[in-house]
Amino acid sequence: MSLIILGTASHVGKSTIVAALCRSLSKRNVSVAPFKSQNMSLNSYVTKDGKEIGIAQAIQAFAAGVEPKAEMNPVLLKPKGDKTSQVVLLGKPYKDLKIGDYYKETDYLLNVAGESFKKLQSEYNNIVVEGAGGAAEMNLYERDIANILLARKLGLPIIIVGDIERGGIFAQIIGTYELLPDDVKKNVCGFIINKFRGDSQLFSEGIKIIEEKTNLPVVGVLPYTKISIPSEDSLSLNDKKPVGFPVKIAVIKLPRISNFTDFEILENYASVEYLDSKDLLLGYDCIIIPGTKNTVDDLIELKNNGFDEKIKEVRLKKIPIIGICGGYQMLGKTIIDLGYESENEKTIEGLGLLDTTTTFESYDKTTVQVKRTANKIGPILSSAGEAEGYEIHMGYTKLNNTKEAFAGEGAVSEDGLVIGTYMHGLFKNHDFSEALLKYLYSQKGCEFTGIIKDESEYSYDTLSEHFEKNVDMKKILSYFN
């Protein structure tokens, strides 16, 4: 059997709860896999066979102890701006569609999602399904392939999750339940209250009210916790607060920032701040320019805010500057767009910190897992060793009069302090992150003691333990029978 986790809104914790459930079942030696029919996110992951899916489903798969697959997230929407998204279907680019045109494909996409679910269920038997956004968007019921239409098609038990931290938990939970279509509503079997701050025993009266109004159980009240698993989308950037470490790292919050989860491991060892391009860059020990869904347009916006002059000032102070994917492309001298990155053909100057030229000459996208050895250039790469990650990008970057940062990829300045690479997941390699942090700490006259090994596995186990401690696990498991 399988189970659906629906939410009262976006960012209420559905992804985390699915990950927790997958881990809890896996620890019981139950075969399980995650599934989300449609995801809208610029944080994505590349599977072993070169398919692109939402990062949340990859994390949930790791929590379940299985390899991520395209069927776990058959439809991925990557917003490009101007009400247009790239549709990634079963891991490969399908079309760029405006929202009105996307809805015309509802029947086809729902069928793809249904077939993907069947394939997963035949292999893993137990599937934890995640909805998207709020389930009770009544104006979308006839085209909602992530919630209502999927729930109708699968006919599975449903748990609804609400976020008490937002306030209005009774309206969230009871309102969502009552507004569901009758044929979906009948499958709801319980509720989870998420992000409770304080003594959850004080909410006993609230539980009683919800259960009396719905005749259904509240199967858990989860206290707010900060457990280090990657975030799903940019909404979580608003929750990030820098911690008082001696080293300060600035990540540029590009308008179309993608895969910012690349840097979340650094938040455990440095004060990481996500800055708008209008902010000053002085006072930081390292600058990171992340990936983006649209390198050309984001670079133009950066330059309109004077970012090119700000970054040159940082460069003169010998502060490390690292560009990942689109950020790497921006660090170069020239970007040539033949009409595939933005609507019109154009050639623009990059930030000029690396002697490279990037050309967008087709709609094709590179999606591949990689393993590369850092070249011994400068104080960071010299002790970075081997790194593995994945590439997701359009465009090809040519090195002119500059050296490779890694064997076969990337670029690095002569002093080794400007590094560009297409490798997402770079900082999850302990050797690279330790090399960077040891250098940054040494520049502050401090000693860096090292990164905790196997941190992700520890986080998954901690998450499942937190989950099981605060829910009626016996009742939840009964829904899978």
From TrEMBL:
Domain CobB/CobQ-like glutamine amidotransferase intervals: 248-432
Pathway per the UniProt entry: Cofactor biosynthesis; adenosylcobalamin biosynthesis
Keyword Cytoplasm belongs to the record: no
Active-site residue list: 325, 424
InterPro entries tied to this protein: Class_I_gatase-like, CobQ/CobB/MinD/ParA_Nub-bd_dom, CobQ_GATase1, CobQ_N, CobQ_synth, GATase_3, P-loop_NTPase
Keyword tRNA-binding in record: no
Record key words, sorted: Cobalamin biosynthesis, Glutamine amidotransferase
Gene3D superfamilies: 3.40.50.880, P-loop containing nucleotide triphosphate hydrolases
Domain CobQ/CobB/MinD/ParA nucleotide binding: 4-226
Gene Ontology terms, MF aspect: ABC-type vitamin B12 transporter activity; catalytic activity
CDD domains according to UniProt: CobQ_N, GATase1_CobQ
PROSITE patterns given in the database record: GATASE_COBBQ, GATASE_TYPE_1
Biological process (GO), any one: cobalamin biosynthetic process
Pfam families: CbiA, GATase_3
Protein family per UniProt: Belongs to the CobB/CobQ family. CobQ subfamily.
Function noted in UniProt: Catalyzes amidations at positions B, D, E, and G on adenosylcobyrinic A,C-diamide. NH(2) groups are provided by glutamine, and one molecule of ATP is hydrogenolyzed for each amidation.
Protein name listed in UniProt: Probable cobyric acid synthase
Native organism: Methanomicrobium antiquum
